[in-house]
Design brief:
This protein is α+β, with helices and mostly antiparallel strands and 286 residues long. Helices cover 33% and strands 29% of the residues. It contains 10 helices and 10 strands. The strands form 2 sheets. Strands 1, 2, 3, 4, 5 and 6 form a 6-stranded mixed β-sheet that branches. The longest helix has 16 residues. The two termini are 28 Å apart. The mean pLDDT is 96. The structure holds adenosine-5'-triphosphate. Adenosine-5'-triphosphate binds next to helix 1 and helix 2. The site of adenosine-5'-triphosphate (ATP) has 19 residues, from helix 1 and helix 2.
């Protein structure tokens, strides 16, 4: 096998809590991660020499700064692979959006190289290695519905999220995760989401039980900087979402619907307002 094509799914955070700032500058988090059906497509092809990156997205680096390059380099060094690799990346996941787009691409490269080279390496080992690329990469290897703790490397798989329709809207702004965490006063957060109650509802397959616990403490930083996020959240509720939340560090907003017709109508209405540059109607991916 000389080539492999993979799908790399985006995630949303059904709940996101920050417990404290650690001395090394990272933050201890407690969050519920969920894959959704928005994905990038990657093709990895063996070449004689060197790692090369090609992408259809003009804003993305096609060099060693792309996370897919870092992931490939890590695998080549760790497993002393010979030859080279060409990585072709078709980008569909919004960038700097809070949807782990870069992390999921990196995870796909790690898994893809394991398969392409027939490496005898466990998923657990791959997840341990991957945290050096980014805190969300271990989750992206695991996928599905999961509780993420520590800096993101302590993962507990959960029951699949009950079926529903998810409207995802990203306004025309880019938010950088680093900026949001740097401006978060972890000590001063006065209202923490009840992530344990959300996990219990997920394990019970109880969608109405999940919804009241959909909270994200990072909204306290990103929304004051970009009030359009609140506007989109309100529009989603007005147009029939049972709950709406910012994902990760933002600015992407998602809304949960049980009826497809309502979700489709909200999609059309929000699209018409032009508050969101990118808008998708999708479902959870197990
Ligand atoms: P997270 O949810 O993990 O915070 P994000 O959605 O906020 O992620 P990304 O889209 O993953 O942010 O990436 C943000 C930055 O990383 C961008 O500045 C981008 O240039 C850089 N980057 C490097 N490689 C990639 C990649 N393969 N896909 C997306 N961004 C990448």
């Amino acid at each position: 096998m000389d080539s492999i094509t993979l799908k790399a799914y985006a995630k949303i955070n059904l709940g996101l809590d920050v417990l404290r700032r650690l001395e090394n500058g990272y933050h201890e988090v407690k969050m519920v991660m969920q894959n959704v059906g928005i994905y990038d497509e990657l093709t990895l092809t063996k070449t004689p020499l060197g790692i090369t990156v090609e992408t259809d997205h003009a804003e993305l680096p096609a060099d060693e700064n792309n996370l897919v390059y870092k992931a490939a380099k890590l695998m080549f060094e760790e497993f002393r692979l010979s030859g080279g690799l060409h990585i072709q990346l078709e980008k569909n996941i919004p960038i700097a959006a809070g949807m782990a787009g870069g992390s999921t691409d990196a995870a796909a490269v790690l898994k893809g190289i394991r398969e392409l080279y027939g490496l005898d390496v466990s998923t657990k080992r791959l997840m341990e290695l991957s945290v050096s690329i980014g805190a969300d990469v271990p989750y992206c290897i695991l996928g599905g519905t999961a509780l993420s703790q520590g800096i993101g490397e302590i993962l507990t798989p959960l029951s699949p999220m009950p079926q529903c329709h998810i409207l995802v809207a990203k306004p025309d702004i880019n938010v950088f995760t680093k900026f949001v965490y740097e401006h978060l006063d972890a000590q001063g957060v006065d209202k923490h989401p009840d992530i344990d109650a959300m996990v219990a509802a997920i394990q019970a397959g109880n969608l109405p039980g999940i919804l009241p616990h959909m909270e994200n403490v990072l909204e306290t930083v990103t929304i004051p900087a970009h009030p359009i996020i609140k506007e989109i959240k309100q529009l989603m509720i007005t147009y029939g979402a049972h709950a709406s939340l910012m994902s990760g560090s933002g600015p992407t907003v998602f809304g949960i619907f049980t009826e497809y017709e309502k979700a489709q109508s909200a999609y059309e209405k929000i699209k018409a307002t032009q508050v969101a540059k990118q808008i998708f109607l999708t479902t959870p991916i197990a």
